[in-house]
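> call design_seq(struct)
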């Protein structure tokens, strides 16, 4: 069982920045991918960004150029740097990890991000 512990989030003004962190209880190299999803009220959960075991990244079109996903392999931690925040970025952000063979899906508890003036 993989446990994911999230930190960061909170409130920011439009144009501001926040950083999310997600620490996994296992080595990053025992996973297939780690990433971030978000869910706004009344909306479906959507992919924000992910990073593969090999280091490749993928972003939702809505965050390209503003958000950056990165990792610290030694700490088994993934980060989401969010810049130029917009009100539409307001959502609960969830850390996700997929097991090495793609059969298992793990989720963090979620952290609220609110962007408003």
């Amino acid at each position: 069982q993989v446990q994911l512990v999230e930190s960061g989030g909170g409130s920011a003004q439009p144009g501001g920045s926040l950083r999310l962190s997600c620490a996994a209880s296992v080595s990053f190299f025992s996973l297939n991918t780690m990433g971030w999803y978000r869910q706004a009220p009344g909306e479906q959960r959507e992919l924000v960004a992910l990073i593969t075991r090999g280091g490749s990244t993928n972003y939702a079109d809505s965050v390209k150029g503003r958000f950056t996903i990165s990792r610290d392999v030694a700490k088994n931690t993934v980060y989401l740097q969010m810049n130029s925040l917009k009100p539409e970025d307001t959502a609960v952000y969830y850390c996700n990890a997929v097991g090495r063979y793609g059969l298992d899906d793990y989720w963090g508890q979620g952290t609220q991000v609110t962007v408003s003036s």
